Amino acid sequence: MDRKNKIWYKNAVFYELYVRAFFDSNNDGHGDLRGMTQKLDYLQDLGIDCLWIMPIYPSPLKDDGYDIADYYQILPEYGILDDFKALIDEVHAREMRLIVDLVLNHTSDQHPWFQAARSDKESPYRDYYVWSDTSYKYGDARIIFLDTETSNWTWDEVAGQYYWHRFYSSQPDLNYDNPRVQEEMIKVMQYWLDLGVDGFRADAVPYLFEREGTNCENLPETHAFIKRVRNFLDQNYPGRILLAEANQWPEDVRAYFGDGDEFHMGFHFPVMPRIFMALRKGDRTPIKSILDRTPEIPENCQWCTFLRNHDELTLEMVTEEEREWMWKEYAPDVRMRLNLGIRRRLAPLLDNDQRKIELAYSLLFTLPGSPIIYYGDEIGMGDDVELPDRNGVRTPMQWDSDINAGFSGTDASLLYSPIITHEQYNPQQVSVIKQISLSNSLYNRIRKMIQIRKGMHIFSRGSLEWVEAIPDALAAYWRKNDSEKVLVINNLSNTKQNVIIQVDEPFENIWVELLTERSYESKGGKMRVELEPFEYMWFKNLI
Ligand code: GLC
Ligand code: CA
User: Fold this and answer.
1) Which atom in ligand 1 lies closest to the alpha carbon of residue 103?
2) How far apart are the first and last CA of the chain?
């Protein structure tokens, strides 16, 4: 791995992985660190540069590990610290990197800090959390888990006070006004950095501080703390990164890059639902408008773009009207809805139509930002709406059509989650082994797109210029830098498109479509292109 390349994340392809779902090495029904280690070749072969794993710490699992009871250990079902060290070594041996979840905002109510805090008003840990005698403070803060929580305050019998929580009531918020809390978190980071992690995906960043009269999101105090964290990282661990989960409008996320002295990366939440809108409407406008409204970011920063992740497809960053429309189109069955989102996977959302799924990836891999793939979406896995909360999109990885989809050798009744049985998505239909063996499978197309992208820094660093004078059904744009230019054309519609695009000065030229390696000619600076429904093409100039 090129350790000297401090801005590796700008051109990296990321993969989000749920350890419990990936591979079970000891046949107890739960995926684990050793299992994941055994499957690293698969990820390397796909072309992944950096893995993000969801929380692996001891936890009562009220929120799948986002409720941490000990920041310094491994959840026993996942293994022990030595397994983690071995994993890191194996990841690095394959020229890949690994980042872990850093849950800053809250702990589990089972964490010893909270236990000490609630049981003794005089305990130094009392002030690690946010308490009140009433439930009226910070009334302008919204409730995030709308389907389950009715307030951000919960009465604690033992403490005799209310405590503050932005997520489940089993996740009390830490009090960042207490300098000791800030110190504790920096210590936690140091611990994992010393174990060799390449950075953190920082969970729920906007909510660290509370101030009366505000919505308690994106406060200046939060930015000051992040700058402190970044400075600590730069001083001691250059080349390691911070990726922000800030589900906010582009201008608010922009602030998390600071002057290049806060986060290295931030998820681009608003563009995600608009990719789905554009695909359903056959119209580029939603994508173009949100990118037009996305501010420039500092040179050493990068957006992280995604189609799906382990949560519901969030519809927080759309208008109410758009949300209703998205629910109507993509979640007609109310069981598919959760909070302000849609709890479905990529393939079922796109009608299991490989043309549309590939097209979504074509957008993901060619628009600005570093893309992240959610485990299983590269093979078109399905979901299970019968399972509660977000569990339906966290089912076992389907390796082959053997027992338990090749995920585990245990009795099916012992699996942490049932395998998908749906007629279109069961392991006979959808599996890694099958996808690898079919040359035109989704997996192989994605692999090809990744190969092309990785060889061309233009996709990660080039400018973006839209081709305007063509039908709205086409999302066509240039990616350019000083030495190269690439023209990407995506047909978002279900109809054939025949266009003439001004590609050059008025002379003749030869263009190569990168995915098929076919040549196209432009005459008088114009190129004629015919696209099948949902077809996409990436053109590069030969001269
Ligand atoms: C983030 C995680 C989500 C979790 C929440 C609370 O949004 O992505 O899974 O439930 O934080 O920690
Ligand atoms: Ca196991």
Assistant:
1) 12
2) 32
| Structure-token match 């189609």, residue found | 307
How many secondary structure helices (H) and strands (E) does the chain include?
A: 16, 22
pTM: 0.98
Ligand 1 residue neighbourhood (C-beta within 6 Å): 63, 66, 103, 167, 203-204, 245, 310-311
- Quick one: which atom of ligand 1 is closest to the CA of 390? 9
Q: Is 203 a catalytic residue?
A: yes
Ligand with minimal distance to 25 CA: 2
CA of 111 to the centre of ligand 1 (A): 17
DSSP state of 255: G
Which ligand has the shortest distance to the CA of 416?
Answer: 2
Report the nearest atom of ligand 1 relative to the CA of 310.
9
* Statement: residue 3 has pLDDT above 80: no
Residues β-bridged to residue 523: 526
Residue environment code for 385-420, b if the CB has 16+ CB neighbours within 10 A, otherwise e: beeebbbbbbbbbbbeeeebbbbbebeeeebbbebb
Q: In this predicted structure, what is the pLDDT of residue 1?
A: 67
For ligand 1, mutation pick of 64, 174, 203 (most atoms within 8 Å of CB): 203
Question: Would you say 488 and 516 are in contact if contact means Cβ atoms under 8 Å apart?
Answer: no
Type of residue at 120: D
Residue 196 burial (C-beta neighbours within 10 Å; 0-12, 13-18, 19+): middle
Ligand 1 center to residue 476 CA distance, Å?
34
Query: Cβ contacts of residue 308 below 8 Å, gap of 6+?
Result: 345, 346, 349, 374, 377, 393
Ligand whose nearest atom lies closest to the CA of 106 = 1
SS3 34: helix
The confidence band for 361, taking pLDDT boundaries of 50, 70 and 90, is: very high
Q: Whose CA is nearest to atom 7 of ligand 1?
A: 204
Cβ-contact 307, 267 below 8 angstroms:
no
Burial bucket for residue 506 (CB in 10 Å: 0-12, 13-18, 19+): exposed
Alpha carbon of 168 to ligand 1 centroid (Å): 10
Q: In what order do the strands lie in the sheet with 536-541?
A: 463-466, 474-480, 485-491, 536-541, 509-513, 518-523, 526-531, 497-502
**Residue whose tokens read 């661990």:** 237
- Which two tokens mark 383? 């979901």
Residue with tokens 């585990």: 408
245 is catalytic: yes
- From 311, 312, 316, the mutation candidate for ligand 1 (largest count of ligand atoms within 8 A of CB) is 311
| Tens digit of each residue's pLDDT (9 = 90 or more) over 88-102 | 999 999 999 999 999
Query: In a 3-state reduction of DSSP, which class is residue 222?
Result: helix
Cα radius of gyration rounded to whole Å, the chain: 24
